[in-house]
Amino acid sequence: MQRLSKILLYYKFLPISDPKAVMLWQRELCERLGLNGRILISEHGINGTVGGDIDACKEYVKKTKEYFGAMEFKWSEGGAEDFPRLSVKVRDEIVAFGAPGELKVDENGVVGGGVHLKPEEVNTLVEERGDDVVFFDGRNAMEAEIGKFKDAVVPDVTTTHDFIAELESGKYDWMKDKPVVSYCTGGIRCEILSALMKNRGFKEVYQIDGGIVRYGEKYGNDGLWEGSLYVFDKRMHTEFGIGTEDPGFVQLGHCIHCGKGNNKFVNCVNEDTCRQQVLICDECAADVRTSHCGREDCAAVASELAAKQGA
Ligand SMILES: [Zn+2]
Ligand SMILES: [Zn+2]
């Protein structure tokens, strides 16, 4: 009989004086409970996702709260088998912005971050301030190809490491006096991003409690969100409400080869020199000639492979 299992997602910003000791304790705890997943610990807090038996997950939550105090755990479908192994590590940052020295954290969390808004408060802000409100995507630009807030500004970033240069480029100075709502998948990236923005002269910065996930749970396809949500597990993307069949669903993603509506990213076939994840529909991905990212050298690799296969 299959036992019930779950995946937990969580983070907390809290000063940790001895991250290594916490790491060893967390590792021992997860091993004892048979949990797999990935946990990062820094002197600023903890960021993790683990999966396993439902009772083991409950015990993990209880023990972790004993140390970290009140914190929110998001439960989702899955289990230990969704992770290759258990990895518990100490890092300079629990999200790699390349700014460990700039981030300030106290018992209440990140110091000097954006004002937290509940999903309904986001809508109220837009009702009151109208087009003046700017949505600022706190994710990698690729993620916004399949879904984003309506009319959002999507910075040109490949990883969170690119944000500081992007914020300091001058490109976004026009929004420094406007109400800016930063957003990301579950909220953790914006805890840091909103503080980095305020430090760089953005005067009125907000962040969404629980991120896009919570906003989407509340409003589905009938709010200010458009399209799918990129997720970092096997699913690759998820939709709100009843999904793409929802009359309110906005199809943003399209296959780069045939143009058909598509929300699934795949790896470019030229895996040796290209790490691109690109939007390619199932049909085009099944044909090696259209399984590349569009770059000239990648297209050439795809043609060569096709020739070898006698396609
Ligand atoms: Zn296609
Ligand atoms: Zn490529």
From TrEMBL:
Keywords: Oxidoreductase, Transferase, tRNA processing. It comes from the Bacteria. Residues 129-224 form the Rhodanese domain. Its EC number is 1.14.-.-. It catalyses: uridine(34) in tRNA + AH2 + O2 = 5-hydroxyuridine(34) in tRNA + A + H2O. One of its GO terms (biological process) is tRNA modification. The keyword Amino-acid biosynthesis does not apply. It is an enzyme of class 1 (oxidoreductase). InterPro entries: Rhodanese-like_dom, Rhodanese-like_dom_sf, Rhodanese_C, TrhO, TRHO_N. The keyword tRNA processing applies. One of its GO terms (molecular function) is transferase activity. HAMAP family: TrhO. Belongs to the TrhO family. Catalyzes oxygen-dependent 5-hydroxyuridine (ho5U) modification at position 34 in tRNAs. This is tRNA uridine(34) hydroxylase. The gene is trhO.
